[in-house]
Amino acid sequence: ALLFCFACTEPKKEVLVPDIDLAEEALIPMPLKVIPTNSAFALDQFTAIYTSSSDSSLADIGAFLSTKIQSKTGLRLPVNDTEGSTVDRIIFINQTENLELKEHEAYQLYINKDSLILNAKTTEGAFRGIQTLRQLIPEKSNDTLNEHSIWPIPSGKIIDEPNFEFRGAMLDVARHFFGVDEVKKFIDILAYYKINVLHMHLTDDQGWRIEIKSWPRLTEIGGSTEVGGESGGFYTQEEYKELVAYASKHHMMIIPEVDMPGHTNAASVSYPFLNGNGKTPKLYEGTHVGFSTFDTRKDTVYSFIDDVVREISQMSPGPYFHIGGDESHVTKKNDYKYFVERVEKIVQKHGKRMIGWDEVATADIDSTSITQFWNSEDNARSAVKKGMQVILSPAKKAYLDMQYDPLSKYGLHWAAYIPVDSAYVWTPETYSGIDNENILGVEAPLWSETISNSSELEYLAFPRAIGYSELSWSTEENRDWENYKVRLAKQAPFLERMNVNYYPSKLIDWE
Ligand code: TNX
């Protein structure tokens, strides 16, 4: 209930609204429950936004909503303005523990004729609810029913919470570097679909992309190249913090990955004592994998790793640190295990939980560490036996760098061709035979051997990443390809307005 009365002194202006059906809206990801009441809330110039506490995090969400409404409609809605005179309708963002939903990102939207109330358990929940609301605002106003324009939002109730708490995408900034603004644009689009994790693959054979103050040659030398002989690049610590803050503002966590002991050529060129394969390393601009390794038996290598993990962890508010661990084909098996076990302790010492690609499950590691299943079901099963949680990124289904079909311009196809339907039509809950309680969530990795700018990134990521958002947020009963593809077609105006170079798959009747 609203315990206050804004603009009570003003007689309310009558506004005419169309009867529209909330169940017909093209929401992605599909909410848990949608209950239409076939009227509408008239979003217009007499609408104002209020938040239950002016506590800055909730007020920030109100301001975020106001900005997004302005860029879509041109309306400038005040936030928590107590002096405003002509308020006819309110959007009220309310934080309350008392929701009969269990997930901390849960929210409910009550859309009535004169009020639109968002109840959320947490500020994250409020932020997710705001994304639903953004999707309900029509692209075009109705200018005929009233003397002024309204953007009618269908009335009813939405009750919603995520199926998986971890809903991620990964960007490889090592094979090709992507600058701060390119990453921010990616975050903007992902956040609209309730993705809450951006995993950044910060280092690989072809480049080291994050400034480490105690080891400056990593970026001076290791950051100077990329695939194809272009100029490389890296984030200064200030820039990296700016990205972390931008992601946080979108209630998204950045997970940093430093890939080791393989995929380390760029580090070993910068500091040759790290190198473990006996050769003198040279900068590498090709796309082979599996040829590099750290020396796993030198203490100095572990002091180096300690510095790197410490500096990056200090800039990372989230609980995870990703150590890579994939395709260490020139590291002896025992050396590999020894290495992973020792690095796990370093990660824990700096207050983080270790994540690694599925090969790390061959080592004797802790149940609090996490395995990212990309390739080997055996490894995923060993992880579960150790009591670990698993992130699902099966290459055949979830790799954003796989080509859509043999004709698509960018991407690889070693795992599969992944057209838009195949990307969506699988069941994370049962895909690899892992019990639900061991599944942390779903992540779609975008490797960058074949892409080097935003427009190429977007060609591979969209529309498939939108499908992964539904696979991780929505329940199995609420997912259906025939229904999804109609909703996906209706994303075109948003993607075009955001200047996203999505792949216009022929499987979709784009609007
Ligand atoms: C395998 S997936 C890799 C990456 C490549 C990718 C290309 C994984 C853990 N390792 O190094 O970029 O294939 O699809």
From TrEMBL:
Record's catalysed reaction(s): Hydrolysis of terminal non-reducing N-acetyl-D-hexosamine residues in N-acetyl-beta-D-hexosaminides
CDD domains linked: GH20_SpHex_like (cd06568)
Domain Glycoside hydrolase family 20 catalytic: 164-475
Top enzyme category: hydrolase
Signal peptide residues on this chain, from the entry's feature table: none
The entry's keywords: Glycosidase, Hydrolase
Domain Beta-hexosaminidase bacterial type N-terminal: 26-150
Keyword Hydrolase: yes
Pfam families recorded: Glyco_hydro_20, Glyco_hydro_20b
EC number annotated for this UniProt entry: 3.2.1.52
Protein family per UniProt: Belongs to the glycosyl hydrolase 20 family.
PANTHER family on file: BETA-HEXOSAMINIDASE, BETA-N-ACETYLHEXOSAMINIDASE
Name of this protein: beta-N-acetylhexosaminidase
Taxonomic lineage of the native organism: Bacteria, Pseudomonadati, Bacteroidota, Flavobacteriia, Flavobacteriales
